[in-house]
């Protein structure tokens, strides 16, 4: 089956885009200081917090990469396994959420400074910027896929439009406007996926027809992947989530520990509903559209469904992509402003000046994100790179702050440097030997360096604020 452009779907995408812009403008009027812009005034209730956690985590990484690309390229079981790291990560964050709120920092780098000092804060900021710009870049491409489907314009042109929209929404209102639009996006997406799943299975000819049209290995546990290769796809998302500044900022933005705990339970339940639905829809798409880009698998189904159903799904996908993009862009810009410029260059900047700088860096980093995507052949490739840079270079040292009192400055800083350098060397000059994602090597290196260096160096007198 071939994909035919369906311009009528553009009305749904356009309508939702207008709603998001109007909501962004409305909530931006409530911003009076940096805390409003970055942490939504620490007033997010359970429903909005649940929605923003869901929408931020389920962006183009799931819609175009993650479960979608795994189901299309390797089969249904590897795709379903992609949900496990997320559920484990949410459970661990549930345990440490009160400590995250207690720190009261705008950035995770600020938490690391409490334990490891200013050097760690600078290194962490660089890691976050490298990773988050990569994550933003494939959100832009995801929107390019959507506009290609609906209008026939090239993915490249659609990516430019996506970049402009993501940058604009991140700039006007920060988390104060992003969080409510996230919540609306999340609940719309759950409804759309539940309507789409049974519909696409029927249109594809039923489960037996679907399984007969895909390669036989797509029905096995690991498909053509070795166990090590499969693990290389599962670990990055777990270690990104465990240290994800976006999630930490959202938990810190809650109105209290009770709201935070309820929202995390809602997030867990939401992912149990969303992730398998995406996997099965993309798997059905593999049966119907075997020759398309894997990143388009979910969105391709919209052109064969009733217009209303396809339009709602496409609008929901657009929402997930845009909200994830502007969230990670906002978070990265916050690091540049508070951890680099405000810390070392313009130490006497007023709150208003810091707010203006954050908005400026949103635009600058957004342009970098657009440039970066041209260096990666698929969404899944850049997703694994970005997740590993963050997960291996950042998360072991961060988790040690919460779980290992003995860890010291030398161990934390060495671990971050080792994780990032190993990732970059494995991905760029070595070009992924044995077709293994870099996390298989970089994460163990980061953990071993953390433990060994800590144990062979004097214990730091620096205490952690818990």
TrEMBL record:
Gene3D superfamilies per UniProt: Sodium/glucose cotransporter
Stored Pfam families: SSF
Keywords per UniProt: Membrane, Transmembrane, Transmembrane helix, Transport
Subcellular location: Membrane
GO cellular component: plasma membrane
Example GO molecular function: transmembrane transporter activity
Domain of life: Bacteria
Metal-binding in keyword set: no
Annotated signal peptide: none
Protein known as: Solute:Na+ symporter, SSS family
Organism listed in the record: Thalassobacillus cyri
